[in-house]
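Hey all, quick one. A colleague (J.T.) asked me to put the 2,6-di-O-phosphono-beta-D-fructofuranose job into the tracker so the inputs and the structure tokens live in one place instead of scattered across chat threads. No bug as far as I know, just bookkeeping. Sequence used:
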Amino acid sequence: MNREINRAGLNDISGAYGAQNIQGEEQQKLDVIANIRFIRALKNGGEVCAIISEEEDGVIDLANNKGKYVVAIDPLDGSSNIDVNVSIGTIFSIYRRKSEIGTPVEDQDILQKGSDQVAAGYLLYGSSSMLVFTTGNGASGFTYEITLGEFYLSHQNIRIPKMGNIYSINEGSYHSFPGYIKKYIELCRKKEYCARYIGSLVADFHRNMLRGGIYLYPSTKKSPKGKLRLMYECNALAFVVEQAGGRASDGQRRIMEIQPESLHQRVPLILGSEDMVRQVEALCKEDLIKY
Ligand code: FDP
């Protein structure tokens, strides 16, 4: 994917594909290409029995009963940034199937909680391409060496600062945020924190993880349940950030403890430095007590 993304302006693979995904979002050509490529690679690998993808309505059953793993993937995150040469990413979660190996995939294999992930991570196509992932024993980053075509360990055991001074939120929606989010933004402004919002979840998250900060996508009038998807965006980043010493919440609950009810379920997402996320949770609690 790295090669295609880097050449996006030179061939006919940028721009809209002309269709919408299940969530009514305009698919970009690269969304579709990334989806096909990852599904093909996971199928050929032979370890996976089913895939949940942002770009597909239902579960992709690979008819590989011997496969031990279920993968949830957002093949290309930050699609609205593809055509303008801004960092984008890929996000993935890996689950061990619950049903017996050798039998067909069942519902219980699919809608698993984030706390059941055995590995998760993301690829960031930025000024360099990186893979950051965890298997539950810390989180590490690998940088892509383009001439050798390999990822090399470059960020061993990443630790997110407990407290930071960057906040990332689409402040254009300020007037439709819940009260506690508005209060938190006021607090950030008073303290003259740094507002940084790329609009590519992976890129905003990665910067905050290395520097210390918080990313927020709360409920809004347009997206009352939040915009981001639990199964292939939030859970993976929640696993990575927790493994790096940070925190991920929907305001009231740990993201990884939310029981998914559907494949494309959306949740509010607040994640990053532990103390910053706890502060937002405390403001949320105050609001709930008041009303
Ligand atoms: P996009 O719609 O461009 O795919 O995953 C959805 C996402 O991007 C995130 O990457 C990004 O952080 C967020 O949506 C941006 O949404 P807003 O434009 O509403 O801020």
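Adding what we noticed when we looked at it: Residues 29-45 form the longest helix (17 residues). The first strand starts at residue 16 and ends at 20.
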